Amino acid sequence: MSTLEQEIERRIAREVAAWQKQVTGKGEPTKIDEGWLQTPEGLRMPFRVLKNAGIPPQEIELFNQRARLKEQIETTHDETLRNQLLKKLSALEQIIAFRLEKLKQMGRG
């Protein structure tokens, strides 16, 4: 083995040793959140990329809209308005159900 190869090996060994000293949480199991396990396998990586980029999936906004509608329904006293909100909620829940079903199908394929 040439001295150049030996020097390269020594430098690599030094860098690996320095890296190992910086690694935190050695020996601890990786924490996997429940959402990861519930996400279809084919969608885990795309959702992870979106999450890391700070972009929530569109379904999150739909869930937020649903929560706001439910809150409005609970606080309104006008029956006409309440019925309109209930229709909007029903339509929104159908949209959410269709989107979630489509995501399940995409995750399998």
Q: What summary fits the major beta sheet?
A: none
- Beta content comes to under 5%
Query: Structural class of the secondary structure composition?
Result: mainly alpha
Straight-line distance between termini: 50 Å
| Helix and strand run | HHHHH
Protein name: DUF1992 domain-containing protein
Key traits:
single chain; 109 residues; mainly alpha; 78% helix; DUF1992 domain-containing protein
Brief summary of the model shown:
With 109 residues, the chain is mainly α.
Report on the architecture of this protein.
With 109 residues, this protein is mainly alpha-helical. Helices cover 78% and strands 0% of the residues. The protein is built from 5 helices and no strands. It has helices spanning 3-22, 34-38, 41-52, 58-75, 79-108. The longest helix is centred in the C-terminal third of the chain and has 30 residues, at 79-108. The model has no long low-confidence stretch (mean pLDDT 85).
Reconstruct the topology from this structure:
Blueprint: H1 3-22, H2 34-38, H3 41-52, H4 58-75, H5 79-108
Helix pairs in contact: 3-5, 4-5
